[in-house]
Amino acid sequence: MKKLIPLAILAITMFSCTNEDEKSTNKDIQLADATLNIKTEESNITGKDVERGSLHAWIKDINVHATNMELIHNKDYSFTLVANNTPGADHDFVMTGLAIGRNDFSIVTTTNTLPELISTRSDVNPEIYMRLTSAKNPYAVYSATTSANITYGQNNSITPTILRTQNGRHIALFKLSDELAALGIRATVTPIINGVTKRELEFTTELLGRVYWSDADCVAGKTIKYSVKLLKPNGDPVMDDHQTAVGLYTEEVTIVASTSINRIYTVRKSDITQNTSTQVFTAEEWHNDNDNNANIGL
Fold first, then answer.
1. CATH numbers and ranges of domains, the chain
2. Comparing C-alpha atoms, which of 200, 205, 198, 187 is closest to residue 223?
């Protein structure tokens, strides 16, 4: 079962003040400094610098934009995450020069994971490949908005907020059934993303077809399915009883935010079976839920 845990709790505590003036109107602006404490639960991946704490390794930077609409005062802060115990790194996310009064905060992360949409072949055991590949850091960026009233001379805290991502991930592996393998059959697989056909990939018994999709375009609501064609050892298409080239399609997969949908497809002469697992990736932890042996007919 999927388990969602709040990604980040933001708390702002005022600890000092400054005479720095960044007003863009004629009003006097009283400024204060604040500490932004970003905490997560259960993550043990670690990777002006601020110690990563329990934030996952694929989060590179945390960028905060603060706006005081009454005084028309804006401030931007950028924090680069580094491994815990890095010499010289700060322990806290310190924001200086916040205007007293109501401040609206916009928080956005960046990622150090490269975007990928690749189709390749592999001779690795399917279960081992899926285990190793699903352990990769996903491409995911997170955001949140919240507000707080900064009062001079008092401790202040932001209402707890959750950083969320629209990014998802999809991993697929294609293999031939024992029956087709014994006949020397090969196959091609073509990804179709949101109706757009991508590069065709041929695979065999020895070299399995694999697709990895984790990039800025892999977001909630996008879809992917696959067209599979069977080939004889000489490269001619396999024909059905009506002398029509056998063409198989998987069901459409809809990308889900903060989730990796992982599938191992077994291609047979008349249909495709699938073994499905899903992972929920927040900044706290990953979860695997298995749903095995679903059948897909023509």
1. 169-296 (2.60.40)
2. 198
